[in-house]
Structures are given as C-alpha cells and as structure tokens.
Fold each of these.
Amino acid sequence: MTERQKSPAGQQTADVVILGAGPAGLTLANILHAAGIDCVVLERADDAHVRTRARAGFLAANTVRVLERHGLAEGLNRRGKPHGTCEFRTEDGSFRLDYGALGRRELHTVYPQQDLVSDLLAHYLDAGGRIAFETEAQAVRDADGPRPTVTVRDAEGRPGRWRARYVAGCDGRHGAARRSLPPGTRRHHRDHGVTWLGLLAEAPPSMDAVGYAMHPDGFAGHMARTADITRYYLQYEPGAPADAWSEERIWAALDRRMRTDEHGPLHHGRILQRSVIHLESDVVEQLRHGSLLLAGDAASLPAPAAAKGANLAVLEAELLAEALVDELRRGDSRALDGYSPRCLAHIWRAQEFAHWMIQFLHSPVGPDEESFFHESMRRSRVESLRTSRTHQDWFAENYVGL
Ligand code: APR
C-alpha cells in the first residue's frame, strides 16, 4: 500500500495502529515514524476533508515546544501569530490582561488547526509515513491480549483487518476506540448547562485581544483566526437550531454584548460557518486498556471555554509516543504503565480551569436566591481578577498552561 491509497481488504499489520488523523493521531504518527516504529494511521475521512476542517487554533506554549522538539513547527513558526492579551468587557467596565507578562510569561500562538493538521500530514507523508484515508475503524478487538486487531471498512464498504502490538485511539469522542472499551469502563461526564453558537465570520478581527464579554443577555467571545477570519461565540438558547438566528440578529447581539457603543464597532462580514456547541466535559477514567491507549478527544473532552482540546491532544501524543518507543525499542514498559495517570493529571487540571472559566463568563439564569448568590460571587471573581496580581498570575498560568 502506498502512503495515500485506500487499505485493501484482508489482513495487514503494523506495530502501532493509530486511529484518527487529527492533532493527536498525526503528532503521534510523526514522532513514532521518526523513531523508526512501524506504524499506520487509519482515517475515516478523505485527505481534503482532513486538511480543510476548521476547528480550534489557539496553541499553548507547551504545544509549540512539543512540535519544535520534533521538527514539526516550521509552519506555525512562520505563519502563527503570538498572542498574549485578553480583554474582559463587563457591566462594571472593561479591563485587559497582558497574560504574556503574567504567571509563567507564556504566550499562545494563533494558528488555525487545519493549517497545523495539514503541516503534520505533509511532514508525515514526506517522511514516508503510512496512512489509509477513507478507512473507518469499526472496532478494536482482543485489546486485553498482546496482539489486538482493528476491524475496518473502506470507502467501498469492503471489510479489512489490522493486526498490531498496540492500538492508539485518537479518533475522538465518538470513535471506534471509545466504543471498544471494556464494559464498565468509567467515564466522568459533566453538563455545564450552557450552549454557545460558534461562528466563523469573514471579517478581520476587531480587537488585538481575545475578547470576553459578560452581558445580561449572555456571554459573547471574539477570537482572531487570521487577518480576514474571526471566530465568535454567542451564548445561545439551548435546543435552538444553528440557523434560528438571522445574520442581522447575530451581529446585533454581538454588537450589544461586546458593547460597541463604548468600545467601537465590530467588523461585520458574512458568516461562513455556524455550529451549536453545548458545553459539556468528559473524561475516561483510565486511558490504557491493555494494548489500547487513548489520546486527544478519545481520552477526554474539555469544554471549549479554555482552548485546551488540541493542546491536550498534542501533549498526550508526545507522552504516548515516548512510552511506545521505550516499550517497542527497549522493552521498558515503565512509561507506558505511567501513561494514564500522567495524562490524567493534565486532563483534570484543564477540566478544572475550563469549569472555572465557564463559571466566570456566564451569569446563572433565574431570579431565585441561589442565582443571585452565584452572580454576586461571579462579579466578585471578576473584580478580583481585575485588581489582584496574584489572581492574574494564577489566571495566566492556567490559561496558557496544561
Ligand atoms: N475510524 C477512523 N477515523 C476516525 C473514526 C473511525 N471510526 N472516527 C473518527 N475518526 C477520525 C476523524 O475523522 C478525525 O479526523 O479521527 C480524527 C479525530 O481527530 P480530532 O477530532 O481532531 O481529535 P484529536 O486529534 O483528539 O484532537 C482533538 O482538536 O479540534 C480540536 O478542539 C478540538 O479538542 C479537539 C482536539
């Protein structure tokens, strides 16, 4: 099979079979391939879809370090934009935090995820890495033994099978890896009770900061993506379809909540993409089940309030790659045995901060005493972040850190 062709029917082998060509799967594949480990990536979508799917784009300092360590950062170092400022617009006034000068003095890099994934894919293919597109993993079998197999179906619906020493489940929250976990595997889920409308607008950024607006009508967020594309979030009616609001109504809500009367107009433009995002989080209790190991969204889903998803995915991919190289090259399984607890420490820290951000950005709904109490605490939290250097350092360290 050449690098790009579909996987023929029948049985094939690789030491490590990686499910999914997202940030987790492709970072892992690049590091393993560079270490001479026999691996293959099985990806359900086709090449074009993988390269163009717009998702996150806010890379933490640790992610840049990992990618630089493995020679995978050329694109983001050339085209990524360093970012270190948040602006909070509240009913009690607005304030900016130059978080790059606070905490560990670390910055984010704004680099659209589709560009990162395209770079990782190009690097892997140029190095002779194996990937099978339009190949959907159906199930992982015998993961409790030394030779797990992955059953697949290709674009023509033909069944196939991959035999491996290890299977890396990097196929997201609804992928085959999660579906193949042993019965009784514990997952911890939290519904944050908040819904956002996620928007991609064909408009230049309207501020040189990540903008967080807390407004009686609900939260609004502004994140630059490129010089011509801006990501917006709007707190939205739970259950409403993505197309319930007209573009006029969306821009009117963004203008009102971002208080353009005080801070100047937003650049309006065509809404290119919209999606309803219900804020929820989940964590699989153990990330290793015999020869099946989880990374990225397959391992945990942090609510998107703190831009942790893609950054956790890259962190976990490096830890897993190094552990698999130790095991497959040197027969040393200590890092593999420690993989799950090491990742979970980062995962729960990210969950904790994402939860804090959700409580910070959203007013509780309802006139009841409970809501009033929470709202008063929330406003005091805002005031503390505005005035306390200690709180600002804590914020910066957790906002960028993992
Ligand atoms: N078989 C093969 N491939 C699959 C299957 C399957 N059964 N199911 C899903 N996939 C593929 C998807 O098409 C996708 O390309 O797995 C890949 C998973 O990639 P991501 O969803 O990007 O997941 P991950 O690498 O874990 O990165 C997650 O990136 O997009 C951000 O914020 C987002 O937190 C998220 C992070």
Amino acid sequence: MRFAGREIRFRRSSVSLRMRLTLWYGGAFAALLVVFIGVATFVHYQQLVKQVYHSATQELETAEGLLVPAPDGLVTLNEDYFNNPQMRLRLERLLEVLTVDGRVLYRNKKLHDEDLGGPPLPNEGRGTYNERIVRLEDGRRVLVVSHYHRFHGQPLILRLAYDEAPIISSITQFVEVLALLAPLAVILAMWVVFTVTGRALSPLSRMVRRAEWITAERLSERLPVHNPKDDLGHAARVFNELLQRLEDSFRQLKRFTSDASHELRTPLASLRSIGEVSLQTQHSPEEYREVIASMLEEVRRLTQLVDSLLAISRADSGQIQLKTISFPLLDLVHEVEALVGILAEDKHQTIRIAGNEDIVVHADRGILRQAVLNVVDNAIKYSPEGSEITIALEAESQGSPERAVISVTDQGPGIPETEQTHIFDRFYRIDSGRSRDHGGAGLGLAIAKWAVEVNDGTIAVFSEGAGSCFSIRLPIDRQIASVAEQAQLAAS
Ligand code: ADP
C-alpha cells in the first residue's frame, strides 16, 4: 500500500511538471501570437491607408483635368469619368474645390455639403500632395489628399477624401480571422508540447520508479540509462555512480562492523575461558597471579584493538582536526625508536637509524608518529630474533614537491607480491593465526596508510623474497629546510 501510495504521488508530480511545461509554453505562445497579431494588424492598416492615399492622389490628378467652369465663378466636374480599378475596397469618394482664401467652389453630392477639412492650410497641397486624416461634422473619419491647382489662371485647392470606415471594417475582419485561428493554434501547440514532453519525460518516470525501489538493502539496483548522451541519461549515470559509491561505503561499513565484532570476540572468549578454567579448581597464589597476568595480556590486546577501532572510526567521520607543525623528521624517527626499542631488545634485534637531520616536514606530528610506529612495530613483530632493522631517512630530489623518504627495512619473512596490495586493507592479515599471535588485528597498516595520506604522503611496500621495505614519502617543508641550510652554511 505504501509503495502504491508513493507511486501515485510520483505520477501526480510527473504530470504536474508536464502540465506546467505545457501551460508555460501555451502562455508564452499566446502572448507571442497577441504581439504578432498586433504588429500584423498595424502593418496591414498602414498598407491600406497608403494604398488609399495613392488612389486618392491619382484620382485628384484626373479630377484636375475634368474641371469645368460653372456660373457664378464656381467650378464643376463630371464624376462619371472616374474609375478606380486598383482599389479592392468600395470607397465613397468625397470631393471639394476651394479657392486659396477658402471660398468653396464645388462639393460633390456625397459630401452632403459638409466641410472637408475647413479653411485651407498655409501652403496646402503646394509642391506635393498633402495627406491627412480629418473628422467630419457627422463624426466620420476620412483620409484627405489635397493639391494646389491653377484653373484658368485662378489658384485652387482640390481636396479628395475617402471614408476610413471600410478600411477599419477590413482590418476588423482581418483581426477576427486571426483571433479565431489563434486559440486553435495555441491549443494545437500545447497538445504538441504535452505529447512531446510526455515522451521526453517517460525515461525520467522510469528512473524515479526504479529509484523508489532502492533502499539500503537494494543498493545494487541501478537506474535505467536510456540514452547516455542526453541530459537524463547523464543524470542517471551520475546517480548510478553515486549509488555505486554508497554501495561501496555500505559494504565497507558492514564488513568493518562484522570484522570488528569478530576481532573483539576472540580476546573476550579467551578472557572468559581463562577465568572459567581457573575457577574450576583450587590454585596456589602463584598460579592465580599467572592467570591474572594472562587475563591482563588479553585486556591489553582488547584495549589496543579498541584504540585502533576508535582511531579508524574518528578518521572515517572526519572528526580529526590536523594540528600541523614543521619539525625535523629524524627527531620523530628517534622518538619512535625510543617507544618500541624495548620490544626489539626483547627479541635481541638491532635498530639502526641513518638519515639527514635537516629534513623538515610540515605535518601533524602525532598522527604521523602513529604511522611510523605501526610500520616499525610490524618490522619488530614479524622479524626473527637477533635480526636487524634499518630506518633510513633521505630526501628524494626527483619530482615536485621534493619528498622525504623514511624506509623501514627488516629481515622478516617478506610479503608475497600478491598480498602487497591488500596488506593496507582493514583487518587484512597474511597469516591470521601468526598475526594474531603477535596481537595484530590487521589494522596497523590501514591506520598507517590513513595517517600518511592525511599528511599528503604516500606509503608503499617493496618485498622480494625475504625481508620487506616499507617506505613513507612526505613533502619536504622547503621554507624551513632552506632556513636550516642557511644557518648551517653560516655556521660553517
Ligand atoms: P597487524 O596488526 O595484524 O600486524 P597490519 O595491518 O599491521 O596488521 O599488517 C597487515 C599484515 O601484513 C600482517 O598481518 C602481516 O602479515 C603483514 N605484515 C605487515 N608488516 C610486515 C612485515 N614487516 N613483514 C612481514 N609481514 C608484514
């Protein structure tokens, strides 16, 4: 039910995205159409007006040739000669002839004795044809063309006008047709967008449906990638990579938890059995002391293991704040030797240290010491009694930045090549029985690797046959080193 509920919610949101896209497109398209219709109407109107003025000008020229004198100094003309083949609008022609001082000499019948533009304007129609829109007394708007003309030596002004109403009605028709088609066009465009987005978003729907299936237990599921080259395919790939990383982390976490519990179980079981066995019979105080000593040994191992686990979990959670300082690396090596020297002495081993005391690094000293300590401790643990362990410190000049190299070489059993890549993994032991005898849980090198890497260094192992050599590389703090060199130069 829960899943079904989620499915429905998803469908709704997917449709709404599709719907939103369609509405946005429809709105934008409608607005564009309105602008388009506006511009088209305006252009159409201008064209019609231009055409009307052009016809009026031609007719005015004809009218000038048809003027005849009439009694009382008036003029008249035979309007039947007019024909207007160019105009597709049926327009009513209005005609007025007046003297330059405004006396009306002729008005045609359709003008119904109305005034066509009032008294003459200064220089009206002289040189060129004068065009203007005039509102008549009855409210009609007309397009008037006037021209100056000499008739039998008398200067006259001829005005010819057409009513604007037929133009307006033609424009109205034009707008009506467009207004009728526009909603159809918008609906059609929206339908196309709705269909296309539906098709385009269908991989997304499938991706989301699959994503809803993915839980912590099903992290191996992956989103379908339909077209790796398009945006959705790219998103799916990125998401799948994220899932891969999550799956890896989860697997690592699970393995870590089960390995850690396993490691904790062994010393705890050992503690319990030592206690139970010792309680079964009466013992002398000496024997009890031995029992307590072996229990304490197990407790020491447990404490060591818990410390390592704590270090690793802190490192994983990023809680550790590095406190970096610049310090001579050889001092650190000597400090490590002082800490583990007693263990080497127990096994009659010799630790030899050779190196340049001027090599200075900038790192978290405490964390780095843990790394060197673990490596040297391993060298002691896994090398036979009476063997020799060398710790060499030198600067490696090739490459940038310049690097300091601590090499820990022992005469132990060596590490087979196939194992060399794994020994830095958590809880990895080559020979678990032997390693556990030494108190190891397979965490020492994992911690060392982390400790070196957070200090911008690298750790590697080299082993061919007997003996191994662990090398830790760290960037040299050149500024401090050059100060030290300068001081040395000055002293010598
Ligand atoms: P442990 O705490 O068990 O020593 P590490 O992580 O320190 O675990 O080492 C992992 C494994 O690598 C060990 O179990 C051991 O078998 C092997 N190893 C580490 N250092 C050496 C060495 N110097 N010589 C031989 N084997 C080593």
